[in-house]
Amino acid sequence: RIRARRAIVVDWKTSLFLPADLNEWYQRLSNEAGFSSDLLISNNKEILNGYRELDYNRASFLAKKYNANYIIIENKRHKANLSGLKEMYNNEEYRILETTLPEAKK
User: pTM for the whole thing?
Assistant: First the structure.
């Protein structure tokens, strides 16, 4: 990640360095999963389901909000339509899609 010079909007693989960052992390998880940040998410299964249903409009929203250029999705588990995003890489497990897009589709 450091060598790639890419920040991560949200993931499950890193821990927070400062307790004060917990609110921001939760906000990002909520946005990524498509939930309101004031809604209490009871478990990570809800968040994973929201992530797997990430569609073009939510991907565009997240790209703008967090200045994200790419999104990584799991090929076998992703359910929503992300056509309109340019595929940059694809293997058996993951796809990397470019999120530098025009306005989100209506």
Answer: 0.74
